[in-house]
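Troubleshooting log. The previous structure file for this entry was overwritten by mistake, so regenerating from the original sequence record. Sequence copied from the archived sheet and checked twice against the printout by T.R.
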Amino acid sequence: RHAGQLACAASLSTFLQQESALDQAASERFKDAAAPPLYMAHGAMDRMINPAWAEATRKRLLDVGVPAPAELPLFPMAHEMHPQEVEQLTAFLVEHLGDKS
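Regenerated output below.
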């Protein structure tokens, strides 16, 4: 009944390389189809994955119709998880995956 349907997605301290095969696939996949809501967050002091790369990804995904956040939430951390980030992610998942009956 729900095969192939994605209720939501999350992107934590990551990015989508510009002009990659995945970037192209996202552009084509969501051009004319509804995309699932996306939670994004990043560590402001992440030295592994530059927060600017995540911000560029967020903007490109918004441009192709992915409902990404209006702003990239940055937390006072490096490449790890912050308690407030976990709380926000939990609330996002409950909102989109919670009991709809």
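The chain has a mean pLDDT of 89. Archived copy saved in two places this time.
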